[in-house]
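can u pls check wat happens w/ 6-chloroguanine
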Amino acid sequence: MKIDIVTIFPEIAEAPLRASIMGRAVESGAVDIQCYNLRDWATDKHHKVDDIPYGGGPGMVMKPEPFFAAVEDLREDNSIVLLMTPQGKPFRQATAERFSQESHLLILCGHYEGVDHRVVEALVDEEVSIGDYVLTNGTIAAAVVADAVIRLIPGVLGDERSTQEESFSGDGDQIEAPHYTRPAEFRGMDVPPVLLSGNHAAIEAWRKKSAKSRTRQNRPELFKKRHDSDEA
Ligand code: 6GU
């Protein structure tokens, strides 16, 4: 898979994508990530990428020309063009799963005040938001999307089971059970004895029950959705 990110802050997107699991995914060839500076497609001598809004109001709006030039250079036959914006559709685990099946994601990063809407109308397949809060710029959000997608590419994680059993995957609008590692007793706090029992059925039952109570505690809206529709 190929992921191209177009932003006025390429250095913000680069660092997280070159480290750890994503860094190894790049080195292994599972994914090719390039971060581009939108200013490289600005044609005036100051490399201007924004301008004042028609109709007035605060802040600046990102100009259409650099985005059109960038997309025309980078788009391929099978590309999906995304625009990162707080006005986009919510990004969820199911969205990450869908994007992980694509061969090329071309991700455009907006500034919070907005992007000329002709970019959205003529170039963008999907507008994407990572949550109901406002970031100064979509670049960190693009790195979030890239991370969530890359770890789903087969071979990127060691143990494929870990993506099938985790929070928000499969049937689960539910969060995971808590995890413990050694030591079995730490500062007077014990690991739940069932996890040391070797009884796999009992461990499974404990994890189901814990996942349910943690979902009720931390994500009451998910709990309600799940338990209104069935008795799981
Ligand atoms: Cl994609 N961009 C910005 N600027 N803010 C956000 C966002 C994106 N998603 C949530 N907040």
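Residues 4 and 106 are 5 Å apart (CA to CA).
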